[in-house]
Amino acid sequence: MSNETDNESERLNNDTTNQIPENDIIVPQSDELSTDATINPIDEDSQFIYDDDTQRLICIGSNFDDIPQSVIEAFSLKTKSLDLSKNRFRSLGCIKNFPYLEELILDDNDLDDTHTKFPKLSNLQTLMLNKNRFQDIYKLVDQLRHAYPMLAHLSLLGNEACPYQIIANNQTSSNNTDFNTFAQNRLDEEYQRYRHLLIFRIPTLKFLDASEISSNERYIATQLGDILYSIAETKQSQSLTTNDEKKNEKKNFYTPLPSDTDKNKSRISVGKVPQKYSGEGSQGNKFVRDGDL
After folding, report:
1. What is the pLDDT of residues 13-38, one digit of tens each?
2. Domains of the chain by residue range
């Protein structure tokens, strides 16, 4: 009985060995592991998620104001789409490390006219800058047209530089309705001028904000864009001149008070001093006789 049991165990061991030969066992190598951050987080930088299929790097709502160096080293040369929405970016110096970017999404950050400089990216086609702090549309457009020669899709909604607004018309009064209609028409005209200006200055654009650029818009921009931009430059230069004049007026403001504050230096002052006549020492009636009275 014991011999039969031993033979059965030996037969099972032989079958197992035959099913999984030693030479067929594959051990995964470290360089074959996926670099997808959803599977292999990069330590403390695991909030950056990379998708190999779309070549997209995402970090949304993490309060970052810069991209960690470890993330740049791991993904910068293979990223074509970068989404940094809802962070605290003001400077974009780190973006220059992503030379093959085709899409850049920077919605809801702290980008503005003063601190934000756009690095040159020759392949960038889509740029989303919604809900930031840009105010000077002319300065912004000049930066974009030089930095991104292939830019086709641009969105600036939610910035002060973009006049696109929607007026809620839920008033029952006819006067309020008329006013809202008038205000909406004015905003529509201003927004259309804004579109013509951007289409003229960035001729590669195909889609602006929430709508595609029509052939009619492009024709009008070609005809009037130069005029609109020259008017805008004139207004801007006049504004700067006015500010300079105001500063000079403050500097040259006339005051009768002496500018010298040296207390030991003698001064001459001219003015009226009030005096009260008391009648003492008067010589007015000295030569009047009693008969003349």
Report:
1. 555 555 544 444 444 443 443 444 44
2. 30-162, 167-202+215-240
Q: What is the pLDDT of residues 138-174, one digit of tens each?
A: 999 999 999 999 999 999 999 999 988 644 444 444 5
User: What's the rounded Cα separation, in Å, for the pair 170 and 177?
Assistant: 8
Q: Provide mean pLDDT across the span 99-113.
A: 97
Does the domain spanning 30-162 belong to CATH 3.80.10.10?
A: yes
**The model's pTM:** 0.62
How many C-alpha atoms does 31 have within 13 Å on its Cβ side?
0
